[in-house]
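Internal tracking record. Fields below are filled automatically when a chain is submitted to the structure queue. Please do not edit lines marked as system-generated. If the sequence contains nonstandard residues, flag them in the REMARKS field before resubmitting.
Queue: standard
Priority: normal
Entity type: single polypeptide chain
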Amino acid sequence: MKNKTLLGVLAVILSSVCYGITPVLTNGALDGGLPVEFLIRVFGQDYPAALAASAETALPNESVVAFAMGFGCLISLLSLAAKRKLNTLRVDRGVFFSASALGGAAFFATCLLLTYAYRYMDKGATIVLHFTYPAISCIAAALIFKERLTWLKGVAAALAIAGVYFVSNFGGATNALGPIFALLSAVTYATYILGGRYSAYASVDSSVSTVYVTGTASLLGFAAAAVLGTLELPASATVWALLALDGLIGYLIALRLMLYGIRTLGSGTASMLNTLEPVMASVSGIIVFGEAFGLQKGVGYALVLGAALLTVSGSVREDRRQRRAESELAQSR
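SYSTEM-GENERATED OUTPUT FOLLOWS
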């Protein structure tokens, strides 16, 4: 049992590392490659020029989302095919439309808003602001689905608001658009989370719903790019590779590791460990993009992460209370 628990912890940590790397891949596709300064640190002055960021190979936001989600969908399909489970994709209309219209649309909006936030502020700070979604989802669940809003979640919401102030002011934002896009991505992701909990596709295996969610997000990305005139094919092998790695690491490796961690540790413990994701995103932002890290920024990060931990901790306590009450009720009968 101890070995299984340790494997679960390692799985969630590795998943968080993978998710922390994906902003580097996404931004690499947006910029047409990796920063020259980073390549010089890794390879020296004789770095491979094909890997360097270039305006000529930079990809518009909508096209990045379209292709990255397309790779995510393709990889998810190949994973199901390898397990000979393609027949599980047969779902009823309610599940199909909720997974596509709600899950896919919310996930597309989240990914697109994040790409726009990356344009205006530090990558690590963007992910930290995005991680206000646990507090947002709890407040939304209380207002819409009448879930109990505990004092712990109230404190978490206050910490999140304070953290937003610090990160917005000291997160390298060139103007207010960066924090606004990052916070809107938290709102749309909270919508995605609540949809996964309360909608028709909540009972469907995640490997199945992922196909519909990423597939719809990809189609919406192509549609948005076509309408806005930003539909472009990746112009270099480097950008193709970055997009494919984004799909592989984010939608197969990281997701499968996280699911294993949830099955082994429970969703509450796994969610707490997953707060390492914005930490890893911040570290990768510092290493790859040379982002600065000061005291005020650190305070903001700590407040937002503290809010996420309190929110998840409150949910875990409520789940335990509910299970205890159900057990006592069953014993009394």
